[in-house]
Design brief:
mainly alpha, 62 residues, 2 helices, elongated, 50% helix
Length: 62
């Protein structure tokens, strides 16, 4: 049995109120995945790109 089949079997057992919660969670996961995808098909996401420019100076030691 695949994960998808097991999930569908488990969903079939749930009452309507919990189905609504499951749907909301799946929609949340979809939105989160979309926001982490590159905007262009071949664009590489650099994790440091958001950090660059957040520090104005070096450390104040010495």
């Amino acid at each position: 049995m695949t994960t998808k089949q097991a999930l569908l079997n488990a969903i079939e057992q749930l009452p309507e109120q919990q189905l609504i919660e499951v749907l909301q969670y799946v929609q949340h996961l979809s939105r989160a995945q979309e926001s982490t995808l590159p905007t262009k098909p071949n664009q590489v996401v650099d994790p440091l790109s958001e950090f660059i420019g957040t520090v104005d100076r070096g450390s104040p030691c010495c």
